[in-house]
Design a protein that fits this description.
alpha+beta, Lipocalin
Amino acid sequence: MRAVLWAIAAAVVLASGCAQKDWIDRTLVTVDVTGSWHGIPVGPTVGHPGEFWLDLKQEGTTVQGFLQAKGASSLPGPVAGPISGTVAGDVFRFQSTRRIVVGELTVNGDEMSGTVSIGGTRPITLRRVDPSSSR
């Protein structure tokens, strides 16, 4: 009987440890994306901007900022404007307030790499050009 109780207790302890790790992973912030970032998407520029500028301000897991995209005239409406996003671990996810632009980028120091979508998904690498909150 004691062996069964010990096995149940061990299972409860192990299960609670696994659940806690998921919670920690979702709330852990290991990077700061505050500053000005610049990058050029990879691939053809038809229908996509040739340059991206992000001005970001991070507070905890929340990020607010402004996106400027230059270089293409056939974009679906004005692309420049406010964005909001989150940081979880080293991943920065954002979208424009008009929901025209969506991105998911992995941050490594002063560089972010991932994808940005404006009617189609394209890989991009952005580099921090100014660590202050605005250009």
